[in-house]
Design goal:
6 helices, alpha/beta
């Protein structure tokens, strides 16, 4: 077996009342002037009311929306989200949805925070991220 260290600093808020915690959670991690990249999937959060709750909770925050993360996130979709985060100078990623959105957010956070010649090398393990957006 290979020796290794694993550090996964991801915070997941789940359950009743979680959305109401968003303003204080964001305030603990960034300034009100920072942009937040809001990631979500194919639209179920709009149909089930979660989107409206999140938008209400984040009223006054500077949001950049990126919807359309597939059930099995496509590389090209993730790269478009990376471009949006970089072009808009986002300082935080908020993934709203299930496992696919969370998985995509981890890749997007790593690639958007650094200047990778070939981001695919993160997926293959040829390169390791040195930093990530919170």
């Amino acid at each position: 077996m290979n020796n290794f260290s694993y550090h996964n600093p991801v915070r997941i808020e789940f359950g009743k009342g979680s959305i109401a915690k968003l303003p204080s959670l964001l305030a603990d991690n960034l300034s009100k002037n920072s942009k937040v990249l809001l990631l979500y999937g194919g639209g179920s959060i709009k149909r089930n009311g979660v989107y409206d709750q999140v938008m209400s909770a984040l009223d006054g925050w500077n949001l950049v929306e990126f919807g359309g993360i597939e059930a099995n996130p496509q590389y090209q979709t993730c790269l478009r989200a990376v471009s949006a985060a970089q072009e808009e100078h986002c300082g935080f990623i908020l993934a709203v949805g299930g496992g696919s959105v969370l998985d995509a957010a981890k890749f997007i956070a790593a690639v958007a925070a650094d200047d990778f010649e070939d981001p695919w090398k993160i997926v293959t393990g040829e390169e390791k991220p040195k930093q990530a957006l919170p």
